[in-house]
């Protein structure tokens, strides 16, 4: 009976620790406490993209300023798991918790009132409840990006570089991913209209941010059917698209950060200043002036989004071409539709884009 009781207690402890997710401490963390915590929606800190770019800023800033830090990866993508990760971070004395991804919006909404003495930064989202009632506490800051502008630059450049059969493959159908996609279509449509060239495009959301055989198979079928380049927009899912491109003589457009180092098939990347945004908030926090209650919007106007040019593999689209279109965005002479402006991608194709089924 005593052995059974001990087994039961151990099992319960294992279940608890599993539900709280995995913890990854920084190299300068010599104690069990971590002042700065980062909670990811999915994946680890080595995804060569969204998560990694922010984690590297946390490592750099905390390392230079002798702050302890840790990463918490929930075992599943649920609000309960995210809140369990937050609870674990708070138990380790976290004073600033960086929440990465729009899927964490409702968790932040709850956590900001549960832990009023903890500062929260949510990247790619704004806190709201399940009924979409938005509220940002005085201990919370929000960062969002004009992904439609980065997507526009990618679509415009691809068509200007001579591609006439494009694909967009997003991960989850979140606002940020939709903005990337809608911008991509509008950029391609603008360049096609200038060249008076018909463009066909495949467009879908894969329903995952992870690598999968299904994503790789779908991308391969697109390439075999004539798609020349796919904008792979969804975390590690993009690696499955890259593998399909490598096996089918296709090309890829990366996302969030410069992904040219992942494969020779990556011709450019639609970028947003994730690292800079996190760095700015970390610096404010370090000065004792955390910008609670503030929402920051990074756009072309404040150099918050861009297209990778230095390491691009275009055949004809030049730095001069890029500067011209980027400055048009920056000056506000190009108006784009976002996820909140239209119901579907078919409403923004114009006369020169055909969406293939």
UniProtKB/TrEMBL annotation:
Main subcellular location: membrane
Under InterPro entries, the record lists: BMP_lipoprotein, Peripla_BP_I, PnrA-like
Annotated signal peptide? 1-22
- Where in this chain does the record put each ABC transporter substrate-binding protein PnrA-like domain? 35-334
Q: Does the keyword Transferase apply?
A: no
Q: CDD domains of this UniProt entry?
A: PBP1_PrnA-like
Keywords from UniProt, A to Z, are: Cell membrane, Lipoprotein, Membrane, Signal
**Locations listed in the record:** Cell membrane
As for membrane topology, the entry says: Lipid-anchor
**What cellular component GO annotations does this protein have?**
plasma membrane
Which PANTHER family did the record assign?
A: ABC TRANSPORTER GUANOSINE-BINDING PROTEIN NUPN, TRANSCRIPTIONAL ACTIVATOR PROTEIN MED
What is the similarity comment for this entry? Belongs to the BMP lipoprotein family.
Name under which the protein is recorded:
BMP family ABC transporter substrate-binding protein
Q: Which organism is it from?
A: Candidatus Allocopromorpha excrementigallinarum
């Amino acid at each position: 009976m005593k052995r059974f009781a001990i087994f039961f207690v151990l099992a319960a402890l294992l279940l608890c620790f599993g539900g709280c997710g995995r913890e990854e401490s920084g190299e300068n963390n010599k104690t069990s406490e971590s002042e700065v915590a980062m909670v990811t929606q999915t994946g680890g800190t080595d995804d060569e993209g969204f998560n990694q770019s922010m984690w590297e800023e946390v490592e750099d800033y905390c390392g230079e300023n002798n702050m302890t830090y840790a990463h918490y990866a929930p075992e599943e993508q649920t609000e309960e798991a995210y809140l369990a990760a937050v609870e674990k971070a708070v138990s380790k004395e976290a004073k600033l918790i960086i929440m990465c991804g729009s899927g964490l919006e409702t968790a932040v909404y709850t956590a900001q009132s549960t832990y009023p003495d903890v500062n929260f930064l949510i990247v790619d989202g704004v806190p709201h409840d399940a009924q979409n009632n938005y509220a940002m506490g005085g201990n919370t800051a929000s960062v969002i990006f004009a992904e439609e502008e980065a997507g526009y630059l990618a679509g415009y450049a691809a068509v200007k570089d001579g591609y006439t059969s494009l694909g967009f493959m997003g991960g989850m159908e979140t606002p940020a991913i939709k903005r990337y996609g809608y911008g991509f279509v509008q950029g391609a449509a603008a360049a096609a209209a200038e060249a008076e060239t018909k463009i066909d495009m495949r467009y879908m959301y894969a329903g995952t941010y992870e690598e999968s055989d299904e994503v790789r198979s779908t991308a391969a079928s697109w390439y075999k059917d004539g798609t020349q380049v796919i904008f792979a927009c969804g975390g590690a899912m993009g690696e499955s698209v890259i593998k399909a491109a490598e096996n089918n003589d296709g090309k890829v457009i990366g996302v969030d950060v410069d992904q040219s180092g992942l494969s020779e098939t990556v011709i450019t990347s639609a970028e947003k200043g994730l690292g800079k945004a996190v760095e700015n908030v970390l610096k404010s926090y370090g000065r004792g002036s955390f910008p609670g209650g503030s929402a920051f919007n990074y756009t072309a106007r404040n150099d918050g989004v861009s297209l990778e040019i230095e390491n691009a593999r275009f055949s004809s689209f030049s730095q001069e071409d890029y500067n011209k279109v980027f400055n048009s965005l920056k000056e506000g002479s190009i108006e784009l539709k976002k996820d909140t402006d239209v119901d579907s991608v078919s409403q923004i194709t114009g006369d020169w884009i055909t969406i293939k089924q």
